[in-house]
Amino acid sequence: MENRIKSVDVLRGFTVMYMVFFHSYILFYKYLSHPIFIVVGYISMGLGSTFIIVSGISFFLFINKNLTLNLKKREIFNNTFKRAFFLIGFTLLFQIMYSILFPSQDFIIHWSLFYVIGISMLAFVFIPFLTKKYRILFYCSLFISILLINNIIIYCKIVYLFFLVETGTFSIIPWANFFLIGMIVGDFILNTSKSHINTYSLAVLTTGIFLMIAWTLWAKTISYIILDLFFWSVGFSLILFITLFQILDLKQRNIFFEERFNQWGRTAFSLYYIHFVIIKGLIYVFLYFNKDFLKTGLLLYQLIIFIIIFMISLDLFLKIWYKYNYKYGLEWMMRKFERMSFFNKKIN
User: Fold this and answer.
1) What are the C-alpha distances in Å from 168 to residues 84, 161, 174?
2) Domain that holds residue 279
3) pLDDT tens digits for 131-177?
């Protein structure tokens, strides 16, 4: 398979677009008990994991591309370190600044989506350099180990390690496994012959369906919500990705809004943080005109109008920004940071 996988770009854009929409939940929280919004919440959990899986796929493709360019191992490790350092560093800086500008009752650095991605890049960077036999060994052992550590910390109540599993929406354990799954999928795409790709794709799709069915049955007998949603999210993500992979990459067909999803996907890192500031600012605007806004929320028709205007405005912003090649965005900054040589001197 070629390194450029259309389904990866489209799915990254779709997931970040949905997350931007869902993160405006504060404006419709009073409707969260409605069955429609319960479904929306489950889909959001599934797409959050899908974004990390797509990041794992992209990471494996990134390493493979560097290997095909005959870059030295230390150069690849150096580039990976700088990318991960930028993701983690900017996320930490953003959380600190956000807490200062919009103070709340507590000041805690929570696990974030990009912490998981950055730390996973550093933890798993060695895997693509291994032979197939050892890659499979490490995939299986790391995946099982992360789940075991998660269960041991929770059920043995190791309090001083709770920060690994319970702090924030995307705790490093077990969410790092989604990144690992993405690397496995990327490995599967690049190293499966065209004659077998359809058969193996069907196997992946079957696995996704099985995990979702198993979750439905298992969820009735367990009470720990994070772990049971983990398997549901894995199944959901595999079904979504392999379906798009079949349509866009194997059958070479187009879908509606494909270019739009690509555009959102190329600026996913930037949009993820831009929309937080916009939504928080809008809440303050609403509070200025209605002090009881957080108690009353928006009426349903107001919510729909707001979401439409909000999404269209972001889309128009992206179209204008595209003309300037997304200059000064976080992706642009990360590329600039990656080209800096201060880490290279230390390695050399």
Assistant:
1) 19, 14, 12
2) 6-347
3) 999 999 999 999 999 888 888 887 888 877 777 776 666 788 888 99
Kindly report, residue by residue over 187-203, the tens digit of the pLDDT: 988 887 777 777 777 77
Please provide residue 111's backbone torsions phi and psi, each rounded to the nearest 5 degrees.
-60, 140
- In the chain the first and final C-alpha atoms are separated, in Å, by 34
Which residue stretches of the chain are H helix? Answer: 6-22, 35-68, 73-101, 113-124, 132-155, 163-166, 172-190, 194-218, 225-244, 258-266, 268-289, 293-296, 300-323, 330-339, 342-347
The residues pairing with 111 across neighbouring beta strands, listed in sequence order, are 168
Supply the pTM of this predicted model.
Answer: 0.85
Residue 156 lies in a domain: yes
Between helix 225-244 and helix 35-68 the angle, nearest 10°, is: 60
In a domain, 1, yes or no: no
Is the distance from CB of 7 to CB of 248 less than 8 angstroms? yes
Number of domains comprising the chain: 1
